[in-house]
Write a structure and sequence with these properties.
By secondary structure, the chain is α+β, with helices and mostly antiparallel strands. The chain has two domains: 147 residues, no CATH class; 118 residues, Arc Repressor Mutant, subunit A (Orthogonal Bundle), CATH 1.10.10.10. Helix content is 56%, strand content 15%. The strands form three sheets. It has a three-stranded antiparallel β-sheet, sandwiched between helices. A three-stranded antiparallel β-sheet has the order 6-8-7. The two termini are 49 Å apart. 21% of the residues are buried.
């Protein structure tokens, strides 16, 4: 069971890696949602599979015990002694207390019997550890993705902006000499440099920079940018190239960051060296 769970997780990472390499990108939000969904589905499937396997084992055990009890019974009536004999022949201790013999129907002069037990007893003998492990992994994955992709405060930050820069955005005094960061005040949608001064981006440039920040990794594909900034436009490549040509000098002038092209398929915001 553990091997199956591990193989399933490995398959998830393999698919994700192939998607990442194919697009030349670091993982995006929908990738994280896909991994979370697969982990949850794997946990549920593993849990159900373990329960069904335990149910089959319980059925065999109960039917074997019932056969022994009926073989020594000399009457068509189920007596307390019959039930005691039935339970004493059940090999799985967890099933004995809730097990019972049910009269199904009468077939001529003979009675038909069925052995059964509570679902909770079957659950208690099923191995839910692999499912629990996958559930914990999925929860940790979800928490990690929340921290990675969603800012937690009013100011979103690139590249470890010092606290004094964020303080200056709130009207306090402070300096942040030597910082290479870009700060977005999410309340106003305005970008600032590390010293708290406003960076003169145009509205279109602000939207693009906000996309870089929201990506978490600082990487955006060409198609994602075009779809977001110019929806419905059949080919926005030339418009995108013009936008990149205008925004790159502004970014480099007001921060220690730069926008670089990834083989023409994507763009990445990184620190200048």
């Amino acid at each position: 069971m553990y091997l199956c769970a591990g193989c399933g997780t490995a398959c998830v990472w393999s698919v994700l890696l192939q998607i990442t390499l194919k697009n030349g990108l670091i993982m995006k939000r929908w990738h994280s949602i896909l991994v979370f969904a697969v982990l949850v589905a794997s946990s549920v499937a593993t849990s159900v599979g373990s329960y069904n396997a335990a149910g089959r084992r319980a059925e065999l055990d109960l039917n074997e015990a019932l056969g022994v009890a009926l073989a020594v019974q000399r009457s068509t009536v189920i007596t307390p002694d019959t039930l005691a004999l039935f339970r004493s022949n059940i090999h799985t201790a967890e099933l004995r207390k809730s097990s019972r013999i049910v009269v199904c129907c009468a077939e001529g002069e003979r009675m038909a019997y069925r052995a059964e037990c509570l679902a909770s007893a079957v659950w208690s003998i099923s191995d839910q550890r692999p499912a629990a492990f996958l559930a914990v992994v999925s929860m940790l994955w979800a928490v990690g993705c929340v921290f990675r992709f969603y800012p937690r405060h009013g100011c979103a930050v690139y590249n470890n902006v010092p606290a004094v820069a964020a303080a200056k955005l709130r009207g306090r005094r402070g300096t942040a000499k030597g910082s290479r960061s870009i700060v977005l005040d999410e309340d106003t949608g305005i970008f600032h440099d590390a010293n708290g001064e406003e960076i003169p981006f145009t509205p279109m440039q602000q939207q693009l920079m906000a996309m870089f920040l929201a990506s978490g990794s600082g990487v955006l594909s060409k198609s994602d940018i075009c779809d977001a900034l110019w929806p419905g436009k059949e080919d926005a490549s030339e418009t995108l190239y013009a936008l990149m040509g205008r925004i790159k000098p502004v970014v480099e002038k007001h921060s220690g960051m730069k926008i670089e092209s990834l083989r023409g398929r994507a763009y990445r915001l990184v620190e200048r060296k």
